[in-house]
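ARCHIVE CARD
Drawer: 12
Card no.: 0347
Subject: one protein chain, sequence and derived structure
Cross-reference: see card 0346
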Amino acid sequence: MMTSSLDQDARAILLPAFDSLDFADVLDPFLGKGGCSVLIGETRAEYVARNMSQERLAAETPAVFQAVIEKLKARCPELIVAVDQEMGGIQRLQGLAPDLPELEDAAGLSDDALADRCFTTAVAARKLGVSMFLAPIADVIDGRNSWLQGRTMGPDAETVARLVSAYVKGVQRAGITAVTKHFPGFNNLDADPALVDVSLQTTRDHILANTLPFTAAIAAGTKAVMTGPAPVAAFDATNAASTSATVIALLKEQFGFKGLIVSDDLDSPATLRGQSLLETAIASLNAGAISCLSLVVRTLTPFATLS
C-alpha cells in the first residue's frame, strides 16, 4: 500500500486530458489527493481538423473558460493548466486569445517581431489561467507523416529552428511554459502512432541532422521537452521514445537538456506496444523521464485508477 506521500506523488506526475470544460466534478477529488495538472484538450474531430468546432466557438467565451480554471485554482493554487497552442497547427485557444501568426506570415517576420506576436497570444492565455503550451512542434517533416500533417512548420530544419526559437522566447517571456515536441523528431511515419503500432525507420544521421530545431529550442531556454509516441529504430527499436532510456539519455546528455521531460500520450498503440498502461507509465519513469520536477503523463486512464 502506498504511503500518503507516495500516493500524492503518483498523482503529481499525471497530466489528465479532457476534451471539454465539463470536468470539475471528476478533477476535484484528483486535485484534493495530490494532482496538480490538467490538459484542456480538444475532441478527436477537432484534433484531426486542426480547428475548434463551431459549437465550441459559440459556447466557450473567455469568461466561461477563465471561470472554470479559477474554480480549480481555488482547490489547487499552483495548478498547471496546459493546452495545445501550436503555430501552424492546433490552437486550443482559438476564439479565446489572439491567434498565433500563420506560417506564411511568421516566415516574413523578424525574429523579434515573431516573438512579440507569440508573446501577445501568451499574455492573453495567462489572463485565462493557462500556464503551459504543449508546443512548439519542432519535428522537421521531409517525408510523410499523417499524424503531424497540417501541424508542423516545414521541411527545412533551419527555418523550423528559427520559428521554434522565436516561439519559445515569446511565450516564455509572458510566463507560459513551452513544451517543445516531439523529440527526437519524426520526419517520416507510415501511420498515425495514436492509431497503429508504427516505428520511425529513418537513419540515425538523418534524424540527428533534423534535430536543429530542438537544439535551438534548448538554446532559447525551453523549460520542457516532450518525447515522441513511437519507437525510433535507429536508437531503440523496442521502446517508444517516451519509454526509451536511450532516447531520454540522448536528450539529457548529448543535447544537454536539464528541464522537464514530458511524455506524449502513453495510451497510443505505438507507445503501449502490447503492455498495459500501468506497465508503460512505469517504463517511462524507469527510462529516466523525470527531470527537475516530475514526469507529466498525458493520459486519463492512470488518473482514473488513482482518483
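Annotation on reverse: Confidence is low (pLDDT under 50) at residues 291-307. The two ends are 15 Å apart (CA to CA).
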